[in-house]
Amino acid sequence: xxxxxxxxxxERPEARVVDTxxxxxxxxxxxxxxxxxxxxxxxxxxxxxxxxADTGSLDAAALRAAAEPDADVADWAQRWDRxxxxxxxxxxxxxxxxxxxxHVESAAGA
Length: 110
Hints:
This protein is of the alpha/beta class.
């Protein structure tokens, strides 16, 4: 699953959740936006925030609510749970389980 922050010079950057059926990975992909624009887009969408240039913090419940309606696989909920458990095992889930830490990458190829 990918949370993309995209927008051109004349557009206001926006956050969108794509590849919702691929729960083997979760990443935050930034298009041609600044870290501040990415942070604002995440906050405006209710999906999370930027921690720094390399890391984002995503609201787990909001991400699930945004992604699940677009899912096309019957066992999506089980796949989601496995993804969160894997993230927890790697230390990428907050203690209260509310947020998921994700790596930031360029969306130039997206």
